[in-house]
Amino acid sequence: MLFSRIKPLEAILATAEKKALRRSLGPFQLTMLGIGAVIGTGIFVLTAEAAQKAGPGMMLSFVIAGFVCAVAALCYAELAAMVPVAGSAYTYTYAVMGEVLAWMVGWALILEYAVGASAVAVGWSGYFVGLLDDQFHVHIPLWLTEGPSQGGVVNVPAAVIALIVTALLIVGTTESARVNALLVTVKVAALTAFIALTLPVMHLSNFTPFTPNGWGTVGVVGAASSIFFAYVGFDAVSTAAEETKNPQRNVPIGLIGSLLICTVFYLLVSAGAIGSIGAQPVHGLNGQTLLPGSPELAARCAQIVAGGAVQPLVCSHEALAHVLRVIGDVNVGNLLGLAAFVALPSVVLMMMFGQTRIFFVMARDGLLPPKLASVHSRFKTPHVVTMMTGLVVMFMSAFLPVGKLADYSNSGTLFAFAMVALSVLVLRIRDPKRKRPFRAPMLWLVAPLAFFGCVGLYLKLPLVAILVLPVWGMIGLIVYFSYSRSHSHVGRGIVEVEPLEPSPIPGLKE
Prior knowledge:
By secondary structure, the chain is an all-alpha fold. The protein has a single domain, classed as Amino acid/polyamine transporter I, CATH 1.20.1740. Helices cover 65% and strands 0% of the residues.
């Protein structure tokens, strides 16, 4: 039967025990890992994208996206506590929904991690270029800092940072837990400074009209679909479950704690940005709505600036630093740009690591060639898959704008989250007596809210982003039926497999 291949939870746990990674992470480290993975391009850059769609109503967009993530996090927490192994949504789906859907989830997670890393690289590029221009008066030509849709040719800084991160992952250069915590502190301090400087100069008139584009695809809900990217990363906590002390207690704390902290920051930051300089969408000369990342919006923004007006928030590639400079805090704005410059590469690193971890687990299950996760003899890292991932990230970040990349990433992430919500519900029915160290409260309400919330946000993505998932899924099914199904360890009756040696998690020292 097509959906009969289910890997028993006992086999998954036995494989993880045989792999025997050292459990050394506590709740604080997991929460810092979650915050470090979440706070990134989403809030530092996509604030402008959300404002172009929703205007001041983007505050509601943050609430909607945060709510969907919260109910999804509760589902994640229950499964992660029951199955504290690497693989995240892929592993959970394999244990409950079967191999085909697990493969599709793992395949979709490529959109989350690889495409997501590309979006962060493009976001970093905007702050890097702005920092050079404002602080050192070094101007890089547009054709070297933007993709074709933004009036440029190639985004060289984004491609370069992707190359550097790839090299770091291959040679095994990792940050210690202290450095990871320091980078999180830098980002949190930068956002705190932003809030402290912008909230006192708020003008209530900047919040009117509150929903200039309504609630549709180019409106509050559409902005929630895009800004969902600002929350992506909390599930990285679950990929570290095998390295966690007392995962049944600490993984839920890391998941939910990091999400709550980030949500509070996002609401305060968006209120400060809107209230201080305004966040109304930019329209065409005839009043038409312009889409984020479109050539028309880029041209209109250029016209506004050429006319001597202050650059609107929605036109900035370094939104938060731009706000501070406009209200007169130029030096702090430059420091915030510096904070983004320093900290965002760690998010690229974590996302690319997440991609290699998913590939590693899929190769361990026989669904991908073992060579793909082969370990370098000197550096002890999965260099083949890291190089492949790095090349893809470099190419996409060089030619695509951040908004489109974020939307493509969201399509895969929303599918994976929906499958997790469905899996936890099915497992409650199929195996109600299994020990659950953490039980999601009111699951019969929480899981459907998470599932339909993810589906609803997916349907409000731009059409191209909606189509990316089924097209990518069809390619995945071709790979599955041409290779993976016949090589699957479960399909061949292999319950336990010899473990491959993975690289340590960047940012964490055992």
